[in-house]
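> Could you send the non-specific serine/threonine protein kinase prediction when you get a chance?

Sure thing. Input:
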Amino acid sequence: MDPRQAMRRKIGNARASMRRDPGKVLRPLALGNREDVDEPMEEERVSFGFWKNDNVAAAPRYSLLREVGRGSYGVVYEAVARRSGARVAVKKLRCDAPENVELALAEFWALASLEKRHENVVHLEECVLQRSGLAQKMSHGNKLSRQYLRLVETSLKGERILGYPEEPCYLWFVMEFCEGGDLNQYILSRRPDPQTNCSFMQQLTRAVAFLHKNNIVHRDLKPDNILISQKSGMPVIKVADFGLSKVCAGLAGAEKGGDDRINKNCVNVNKYWLSSACGSDFYMAPEVWEGHYTAKADIFALGIIIWAMIERITFIDAESKRELLGMYIRQGSEIVPVGEALLENPKMVLHIPQKSRSSMSEGIKKLLRDMLAVNPQDRPDAFQLEVRMDQVTCAA
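Output:
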């Protein structure tokens, strides 16, 4: 068999075994277009409350205002906290199948595991499990909750354990609301602004460094999953959508402390090997297609995002028909994701910048080449990247 055909077959097998892309699960709607926005059903307006304990009911704490995103297993609403009047985002996920439960629990575990907040990572206010009209606030690793344990069992066993078609189960995530939309909407609706680009590059690298420091590999970094908050008057990046994230734990890649004892809480995510080929095609690193990768895959995805943002290079998503920021390689009449093209041809040279009239500094060019290196060992880790990004953006 021709080597090129063999490689394409390998890529095809990886694509076939890839877990579902949550970008196709929750698609954002244009915030300014209310014609395509559905008002929440009346029963949803009044049903999102809590039960203080097993016997005492509490009034609903949030009023759902409008839908801002929808997909095959979930809906995102803009909502208002009734007591404080604060705007929040409420994500309603239907836990009617093991794969849905797996995505929901992955997001919950990642966000709930963060002991500290970071201004560039979306904050989870609370998570609520709703079933049969009753609602229960969820806490991470709550072994006393039968409902929580049954959700985990559903995910692990790959079969329905909790709820039936006539008795649906939902997880509600209450998070900070980002009125600026996602990175695609924000960048493509405005004129190019080098100062905004520099600020966003710094914020993105700080967010990823924070996640990796907390043993979280995002695994699906893309403009759809990067939201913009404008509460402070200045645009602030918020990395979101942790449905494919992985919380790395255990002794794999753990480092020794000063007294040579293993520190179980210190996991080197750059040595923690992952095997699920997952993510979104145009942002996936070459090694992800092969199903053997580390947190360095997040660095590659970030390089694609930053490169596309600076040069405002886009493609049209085949499913949603939306214009998205992203880099690709042209092969005849096809556009091929950069990671896929590098897997086929590891010696391929990336032309950075792509446009002839580019104001990209030499420092940023060099940094992007390093972030997009075929060999993940040649890429900076998130902490090195944070330092280098501050240096090149300040110099620019």
